[in-house]
């Protein structure tokens, strides 16, 4: 499968076309909109979320609630576009309009953002041409894509959930997820303002976010994604570019402001002996092969083990600050405070939703790479047979 997205932060719409989905997959705008709403939530979000109410239009590839096997087109309209039609319009400027007079041109790049380097790369003196596309607003439509992927995974008995484990050094008690199903974790997370399973830590996170907002600053954190029901042996050890953990890591790091990724106990492995890291293999007639622990996060040799996949990503503080850092005006070369754009003080809860959906896409894509399935019933039958085979191996 593959997809492309198009659109700018303040453009008329965000668009994606998904290719390679099997036919007869149930898809509704209602389910996608539920996840789009989650992306807009979480404590610490800015005024943009009060302006936009993201909803998706299914513009192709679905008829009467089921995919056709042809490309699926999704559109998310920007409600704020009406205020930006002259600034972001696609038509050339009139001959009597001085381009320098167009409102909201940006010549002062923000530290930590794509502004300056993107301007260098594409030759734009107005850095708005960079920030409009490099904005995390693009993740809106990626969440829509991931929601479609989750619909496919759900049909195959694979479920996925995300939650926030840390914000600005405040750590949640992640043992609270142990023994809980994905559905149970989701019920807790979706009722929490920080999308956190630990109510005590969540209350402290809310305070920290509010303090950062008052100070005109921003804060980051860590999110975790858990995938249950993944068949064993998906991915490959044969070639570097077919390793499932490598693909998941790339997906996580493709999210705006994400700078690190780990699986299972992650970097803690560097502090332990091998006997305290690797998961012993056990077998039972009822369940087949399992691991006694899951320190490796459900992945060995670039392949799924059948245990829950556990992947975490670290998000740096958002670089758009209401108390901006020093920068340089690219026109005058004089030092100035960086430009201020409407932003969030903390987007870690929202980013956990984005992480959930980009991981869902990679999991679904890996499934489609390994199993043939032009039609959903064919795909289901193949995976059921594969599960029987690995259990009895």
TrEMBL record:
Family: Belongs to the chorismate synthase family.
Protein name: Chorismate synthase
Complex formation: Homotetramer.
Binding site for FMN: 133-135, 256-257, 301, 316-320, 342
Domain of life: Bacteria
InterPro entries found in the cross-reference section: Chorismate_synth, Chorismate_synth_AroC_sf, Chorismate_synthase_CS
One GO MF term attached to the UniProt entry: chorismate synthase activity
Annotated organism of origin: Lysinibacillus parviboronicapiens
Function: This reaction introduces a second double bond into the aromatic ring system.
């Amino acid at each position: 499968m593959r997809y492309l997205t198009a659109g700018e932060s303040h453009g008329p719409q965000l668009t994606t076309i998904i290719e390679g989905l099997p036919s007869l997959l149930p898809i509704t705008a209602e389910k996608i909109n539920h996840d789009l709403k989650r992306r807009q939530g979480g404590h610490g979000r800015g005024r943009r979320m009060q302006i936009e109410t993201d909803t998706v239009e299914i513009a192709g590839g679905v008829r009467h609630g089921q995919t056709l096997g042809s490309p699926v087109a999704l559109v998310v309209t920007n409600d704020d576009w009406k205020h930006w039609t002259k600034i972001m319009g696609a038509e050339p400027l009139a001959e009597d309009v001085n381009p320098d007079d167009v409102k909201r041109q940006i010549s002062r790049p923000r530290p930590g953002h794509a502004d300056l380097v993107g301007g260098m790369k594409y030759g734009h003196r107005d850095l708005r041409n960079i920030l409009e596309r490099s904005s995390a607003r693009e993740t809106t439509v990626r969440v829509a894509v991931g929601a479609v992927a989750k619909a496919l995974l759900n049909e195959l008995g694979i479920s996925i959930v995300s939650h926030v484990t840390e914000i600005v050094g405040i750590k949640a008690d992640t043992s609270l997820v142990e023994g809980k199903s994905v559905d149970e974790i989701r019920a807790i997370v979706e009722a929490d303002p920080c999308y956190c399973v630990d109510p005590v830590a969540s209350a402290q996170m809310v305070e920290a976010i509010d303090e950062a907002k008052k100070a005109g600053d921003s804060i980051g954190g860590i999110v975790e994604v858990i995938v249950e029901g993944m068949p064993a042996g998906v991915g490959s050890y044969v070639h570097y570019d077919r390793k499932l953990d490598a693909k998941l890591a790339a997906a996580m790091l493709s999210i705006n402001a994400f700078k690190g990724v780990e699986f299972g106990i992650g970097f803690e492995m560097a502090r332990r002996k091998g006997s305290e890291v690797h998961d012993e293999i056990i077998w039972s007639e009822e369940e087949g092969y399992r691991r006694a622990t899951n320190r490796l996060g459900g992945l060995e040799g670039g392949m799924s083990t059948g245990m829950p996949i556990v992947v975490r990503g670290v998000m740096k503080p958002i670089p758009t600050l209401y108390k901006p850092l020093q920068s340089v005006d690219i026109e005058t070369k004089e030092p100035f405070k960086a430009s201020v754009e409407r932003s969030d003080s903390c987007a870690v809860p929202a980013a956990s939703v984005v992480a959930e959906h980009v991981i869902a896409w990679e999991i679904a894509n890996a499934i489609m790479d390994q199993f043939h399935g032009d039609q959903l019933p064919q795909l289901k039958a193949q995976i059921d047979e594969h599960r029987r085979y690995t259990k009895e191996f």
